[in-house]
Specification:
eight-stranded parallel sheet
Length: 598
């Protein structure tokens, strides 16, 4: 396994780091007595848990699917050097407090983004103790995605995820360090624009006191080098990405066919020339744009063949059982003729996005939903979403941001101004951080402002689908058109939805069917389900699968699709694979049908 696959943050690696995943002490605190009884110093030895798997899962060693509002963790670790140590949590759901050797380091609220704490001055040479308290309610005001908020599973919501569910690690990182590197590919000009943010801008004096150095290479060959005096809190510079001897077309492009990655090393020096920090990263040179109703990749029309991936495993819930398990899923996706995926209602382990970068798979990154609309939900959603956009910005595989899904958490968006304004605000805030990727504000229906018109339609008959969508866009852009079309809100689709919320209209965006299919075989249990009528055998499955795909592929203005879904998940049995990732149908036929239009 290469070093990037090992590191929980493969696009931002320091050489000295230590993974803390493994067995930790664990305790339930159903009566909320841990603080009062000082569990920080007197931890109850009731359970062991295998981090990063949550107590609800088999791989955790506990396997209790019931909800426990408060849980505690504790582990010990050894260090021989107390200087410049930072503790990172890749994901903890939901409200976290962390102590080191009995001293409170801080707290964090949010289940899907990374956070960290500097360990000085409480770290000691030798044995140290980390204690973690996590509170995770069933509140619908917190982003929860597909995690249930009732006692039992229902619909398309599954067992909740509580506590530490992504990796924990230590990293040797100085107080003044490179905090973030933002890399924007400028393919048309053979440049990558780089912004470097330092951790502690408060220590910057009136005169420059640091040097930044950057090296870009490709397959071990130095491509570009830059070093300059940092005169502001943050640094900005550009690197030429052309390989010497081929100035005209020497930039190595990233695409599904050629997933080329450049290596990037960023170093921070003081004015005496002492190396303070070094970060190893990478970037891909690709361009996403929209022209004339189509999405373009590297200035060429892109037809997106995506599959919906919920990222659940029967033995480990939302946490991948291993990096190899992630690789297996992605290899299966390519094997079936898809060129990408929509990671549904989940922000995945960052190694997943690295693998997509490496393998050339396109990704739609989607925010887990809240399920009520009020001031608390607005604040929590906004804070967490903006951090996610910043943290995952550099992955070339991510080509689309999806903020909301099917009006979840924005009830009344069709008629009411407040949820409409919220989606507009999220759209523009996302664009302020990243103006270079498409943003979808409400995937499925009732769109407000959106760069792509995405529609969910689980019609099972291809001929009905073809009739419903024929020539829609051609008439929708005509102001005086009275023809009944989905895109001008003259007719509804998918059991009673409109494409746009009241007051919004189609303005020529690309159109993608971003959920459809969901075909299920006849289920063994009453609670197991798929979309439409269940099929009795593989022949029935493939006939329906091919007919609905053909209907979509034959409509010229539709720019792509996303099939539901990759695997069965708990009671939802409409995957192409079982929960154990075994094929339910002939995958060579799936590939043939998918690649009918490329």
């Amino acid at each position: 396994m290469d070093d990037r696959k090992k590191h929980p943050r493969p696009q931002f690696i320091r050489k000295e780091w230590h993974c803390l995943d493994g067995k930790w002490q664990f305790a339930f605190d159903d009566e909320d007595e841990g603080i009062k009884e000082n569990w920080v110093e007197n931890f109850p030895l009731t359970h062991e848990i295998l981090v990063p798997f949550t107590y609800e899962t088999e791989l955790s060693g506990i396997n209790d699917p019931s909800h426990h509002k408060i849980v505690w963790y504790q582990t010990i670790f050894e260090v021989s050097d107390v200087a410049n140590q930072t503790l990172y949590f890749e994901g903890v759901d939901f409200e976290t407090q962390v102590w080191l050797n009995g001293q409170l380091l801080g707290s964090h609220k949010g289940g899907y983004e990374r956070f960290s704490f500097d360990l000085a001055p409480y770290l000691t040479i030798g044995t140290n103790r980390i204690t973690v308290r996590v509170e995770d309610s069933l509140s619908c005001e917190q982003p929860r995605g597909k995690q249930r908020w009732l006692q039992d599973n229902f619909g398309c919501w599954y067992v909740q995820t509580t506590g530490i569910w992504k990796s924990v690690w230590l990293e040797k990182a100085p107080l003044q360090r490179v905090e973030q590197v933002k890399m924007r590919p400028d393919l048309d000009n053979d440049l990558v624009h780089i912004e470097v943010e330092l951790k502690d801008s408060s220590v910057m004096p009136d005169t420059p006191s640091y040097y930044l150095e950057a090296e870009a290479s490709f397959k071990g060959k130095l491509i570009s080098y830059h070093k300059y005096l940092l005169q502001h809190n943050n640094g900005r510079f550009t690197l030429d990405t052309r390989e010497k001897g081929n100035a005209d077309s020497g930039t190595h492009r990233w695409s599904p066919q050629t997933p080329n990655l450049y290596d990037l090393t960023v170093r921070l020096y003081d004015t005496e020339g002492h190396l303070l920090d070094e970060v190893l990263s990478y970037f891909g040179m690709r361009k996403i744009s929209i022209e004339n109703g189509h999405v373009l990749l590297n200035n060429r029309t892109l037809y997106q063949r995506l599959i919906l991936d919920q990222g659940y495993w029967s033995e480990s819930g939302m946490t991948p059982p291993s990096v190899e398990a992630l690789e297996k899923d992605l290899e299966r996706i390519r094997e079936m003729g898809y060129n990408g995926l929509r990671k549904h209602q989940k922000i995945e382990d960052e190694r997943f996005y690295y693998l997509c970068d490496e393998m050339g798979l396109l990704v739609w990154a989607e925010m887990p939903s809240t399920y009520v609309f009020n001031d608390v939900a607005i604040a929590q959603f906004t804070q967490e979403w903006l951090q996610i956009v910043k943290q995952y910005y550099n992955h070339p595989s991510i080509i689309t941001w999806v903020a909301f899904n099917e009006s979840w958490g924005i009830k009344g968006i069709n008629e009411h101004k407040r949820p409409q304004s919220f989606t507009e605000g999220i759209y523009h805030l996302t664009k302020a951080i990243d103006p270079y990727r498409p943003v979808i504000t409400n995937d499925g229906w009732e769109h407000t402002v959106s760069d792509i018109l995405t529609l969910h339609d689980y019609e099972e008959l291809g001929e009905v689908f073809s009739k419903r969508y024929s020539d829609h866009r051609d008439f929708a852009v005509e102001e005086d058109s009275n023809k009944e079309r989905i895109v001008n809100n003259k007719i509804q689709f998918n059991d009673g939805w409109f494409a746009f919320a009241n007051g919004y209209r189609y303005t020529g965006q690309p159109i993608i069917i971003s959920e459809f299919g969901g075909i299920a075989f006849t289920a063994d249990r009453k609670d197991q389900w798929g979309y439409g009528n269940q099929v009795k055998n593989e022949e029935e499955f493939m006939t329906r699968f091919e007919n609905i795909h053909t209907a979509i592929q034959d409509i010229p203005y539709i720019s792509g699709f996303c099939y539901t879904q990759l695997t069965d998940v708990e009671q939802e049995v409409n995957g192409l694979l079982t929960p154990q990732r075994e094929a339910k149908v002939d995958l060579t036929q799936v590939k043939r049908i998918n690649e009918r239009r490329v």
